[in-house]
Amino acid sequence: MSQRNQTPQAMTPQPGDWVPDPGPQTEFLSLGCFEALYGGQAGGGKTASLAVDALRYVGQGHGAAYQAVIFRRTYEDLKRTVLLETHTVYPRLGGRYNAQDHCWRFPAGELIWLGYCEHEFDVLHWQGTQLQFVGWDELTQFTESQYLYLFSRVRSVRGIPGRVRAATNPGGPGHDWVFKRWGPWLDPEHSVQANPGQVVYFAPRGDDEEGEDIVPRTHPDALGRCFVPAALSDNTHLRGDKQYGQRLNRLDPVTRAQLKDGNWLIKPGKGMLFKRGWFAIEDCIPQATRWIRYWDLAATEGGGDWTVGVLMAIAPDKTIWIVDVVRFQGSPGEVERRILETARQDGVKVPIGIPQDPGQAGKAQTVAFQKLLQGYTVRFLRETGDKVQRAGPLSAQAEPRGAEHGQVKLVSAPWNLPYLQELEGFPEWKNDDQVDASSGAFSMINGSNTLAPTAKPRQPEARFSVLGDDD
Fold first, then answer.
1. Who has greater pLDDT, 169 or 165?
2. How far apart are CA 64 and CA 62, in angstroms?
3. Is residue 268 part of a domain?
4. Which of 55, 185, 386, 421 is the most buried (most CB within 10 A)?
5. Which of helix, strand or coil describes residue 24?
6. pLDDT tens readout for residues 39-52
7. Which of 419, 24, 462 is nearest to 227 (CA)?
């Protein structure tokens, strides 16, 4: 690790040192303003930049006065990203990691914590902590209130300035507030237009007014803010992976524009994730290797949401088939009766997927369905992310590559039209139950070790036909 930002003598890299890419990454690591965002395209070296930036005042004689933290939204995300990045760099500066406290301690006593804020009020665990650096990896996964609360923990001590740094791609549940906060750089309709890397100063309007104003640097309450765009082409560490950009091309259209192009303006809308013309409709399906009937549950009668069961199959060529859709509104008792009736029609060889709610209610529901569907293979899926995120993988599978249809096909049936209307209208359509059921089915049928190969089910009263099976 080249101890850049520490001493002039340390500016010369040594063999094996981590060295920032010239351009945006170096620019971001050189910023001295209070608040900065490094964001845009996937693969821009954002996580590594945060990990290195947190080291700026390590080994500078400040000792235990220096404390920093880097956040991910969940602990699982933390393990897969930030923790790995720090383990490649921090030991070279004498850092020792305490896995129980999720903290790096350096020889002079400096501390860099690795934190996560899965729930809204997890930020309160940091009450009373004095921090000189707060880093947020994938900022759009956090809420604005979580982000702003940590401002109260930032202190300047012994000449160490307080700094807040974040890295993210467009998209995610927090996209809108991040886009608004960095409006001068991201929003072409903002009243002030700032260039990448330009510092703009903000100050709160006062105790009686919400919001903030752009002010001169000399304003007594001014805090500098900056945005530096991250680009895949700037990351020399990924240039050897020629297929990374090709893998990004396989994402759904919205996510691809956000991650590959760094597009902050695109949003999911009607016809963005699914188009009717992407889906070929056939009279029957070839031999399938796996099946799943996945249910999106509702307990409404005469209005509101629909209970939907999507029967999905995957063929040897990896084509996904939507074979049957059961859709109805009913009381809780009616929901259970129809699920059991459909299971009997599908046959015991078709696994049944059920979403699992978190908490005690979800556990009770799991027990109830296991009892109801005794003798059938029942899988439970804990759904994560919002509806648009969950629909992304199926959208990517359905989108055509060239002039051909995508890799999702429908068996011809009366349910085809309302099914395609809902998919094409998503997420603006009045209902999204068929989309949710399809997303869950696709997640389970593609999940690692989720389903064993199965034979075809019994045909449910000729709702669909299956050819080529030797059961």
1. 165
2. 7
3. no
4. 55
5. helix
6. 865 555 889 999 99
7. 24
